[in-house]
Amino acid sequence: MSLLQSTQFRSDPAASATRRAFLRAWPDFQNPAAWIVALILVIMPLIASGFFLIEIFATTLILGVIALSLMFLAGYGGMVSLMQLTIAGFAGYMVAVFGVSGNANISLGWPWWLATPMALALATLFGTLGGALAVRTEGIYTIMITLAIGAAFYYFTNQNWAIFNGHTGINTVATPHFWGVDWRADIAFYYVTLGVAAICYFAVQYVSRAPFGLALQGVRDNSRRMAALGFNPNAHRIAAYAFAAFIAGLGGVLQVWNYRQISPGSVSVGACIDILIIAVVGGITRPIGPFIGAFIFVLLRTFALDVLIKFGLDGNRFRLLIGLGFLAIVFWSSDGVIGLWERWRQRNKSTATRRSGGHHG
Amino acid sequence: MLKGSMGLIALGSLLLSGTAFAQEKIKVGVTATLEGTYTVLGEDGMRGFQTALNVLGKKVGDKELEFVVASTDATPDSAVRAVRKLIEQDKVQILLSPLSGDEGIAVKNFAKTKPELTFVNAASGAQETTYVDPAPNFFRYNMDGAQWQVGLGKYAYETKGYRKIATVGEDYSFIYTQVFGLVLEFCGAGGQVTNRQWVPLGTKDFASVIAALPDDVDAIYLGLGGADAVNFLNQYQQAGGKAHLMGGSIMIDQTILSSKGSAKNALIGTIAASGQADTWEDPGWQKFVKAYQDSFPENKRFPSPSLLATNYYDSTMALILALRQVNGDLSNNQAKLKEALAKIEIDAPNGKIKLDSNRQAIGTNFVTEVVDDGKGALFSKVVKVIPNVNQTLGYDPAVFAKIGLPSRTVPECKKY
Description:
Chain A is mainly alpha-helical. Chain A has helices at 3-9, 15-25, 32-42, 44-47, 50-77, 84-98, 112-134, 140-159, 186-209, 211-221, 223-228, 233-259, 269-282, 289-310, 318-332, 336-356, and strands spanning 177-178, 181-182. A two-stranded antiparallel sheet of chain A has the order 1-2.
């Protein structure tokens, strides 16, 4: 397909060439900063206590995974979908409905290893169907139709008592216990989220460079030319929705395990917009963006109230602080924190080259 | 990058150090709905809480109570998030939470995962919270929505002569519980409930609801609260509605009766029932009203405390008195405190309160009628006082269990 792809897959007897190809496919492994971040994330339970481990870092990873699915669609497919949180919430609801919960008259009581794949399959189906609807439109109309799906689902859960238990939602959702480990205990759960987030991150990274991802980016940039080349743009877009729905579904399953409860507030329109904010603030050009965005979002959401009170201001205005924070980031960088970072690095690099002259080679 | 990672490590060590100092104080977490539809209710709840601290003080033996407040928006997930933040970040040992019905069900379920801590319900009133699978460490000193309607059905049927009514209520557990109490008594007396409409919490446009109100009824029962209630009344007046009204406990309440504008005037003469009546002559109640009024400047409070202020006051009072009984002893997973809470009988402003075996309040209920005090302020005037209302509403527990749990259609309109 492209030069990049062909180097990657050519079987080369020389080990160094394979290594080069590997590094080109996974640039993260070359970057010392990535290794440091990974190391910190792995030893996090030694650094952070229960609250920071779960409420800040695990929550960041979960929201990051859901926003990652939006980043994949928006960044590589050019489709801004506001229903990613809805898909996640749907997966969460399905875990509660098929699995074990306090609402015995609704939950079917399947064990987690049956309920979770079922929930993921249904969420993927839901996202694919929603995507099949949405790909008929472009730009702002995609946003509108996916927002409509999100809003409809919110009001449906609010008023449907047979499956979704209305405004009360489903409480005391059971979480997995196996191999003698309670996987919802703080440290175990942190590693589960970290593992899932890492898999999703690398999966998106991989797919973006695989033939499918490259074709998807081609469709994003010029779908007519891709169609002329024999690709089916809509099929690629729907497949992208399916892939993103699976990732969002994973995030939703983690979210319901985290809170052990799900109710319409978890899938409200406001929460759908939050995911968009996370992705935009972090930056939708790279898979790491949503995680950075989620980290900033979670910090602001958790501490804005305390900060205001510390400065002697009215704590009730904490939403204002959150809004100002986002405004500031989006104002100074249209491609989010990632963009800021990239520009900063570029400037450093250019000054460094200037200073060191021809040494950089 | 190095700078960045050092920053992260510094942040991490900061977090660690914050958690490990000695406990001189007893930390109590409080939640209230300071966002969303029920903001006004949450704010007045906090005033009731503050009044209790002014009256009772914050000292327990040689320990001092320290309070951390978190905000919710009446959805169960916001309540669980707030409670978790209080427990895990702020390390509170006792919870005074939450305010709203579905929040109560979620927090009660959450309480089971923290059996070592103590949860005192602040104001939520869904029946399920303490009636179905109650948590041993969850105590509720306010009555539930059905208990708060005791007396209203009979008064409407016998004194007012209403025979057929329709209901409009918010579509969630607390209002189901209220309508449950009303329907049981009204239909038991021989009345008919012809139509029950449910609107989502946070509804702003009531046009279709108002258009669908039946004409051939004697009265319309309103189970709305906060911003929803004010919106409904405005639109109902604009639509020229003139039916007799009956009100739920948060509908006929200072949160609505002292709202701005003239829409509230539609409520004059409305009959209602609640855990309190604004103009009750009882000296204990009058003393509480005075304490509430003295605690805040006139423009920062209601003329008289709302039901939420009273509930927060009662819950805080029960907690502080029980803590004093055990001299602030929280050892052995707070066993002594829990025992004291279960046994304590408090002389609350709105009548004596004690707990049943599910740790649910048995208390006094009031049938009221809305009156104008002549200066444009509305108050609920007491019509009838009913002491010792329990959760099964005086029914035999076996009969009560057969009625089913409150929902959109339960109970049926018949005599049980």
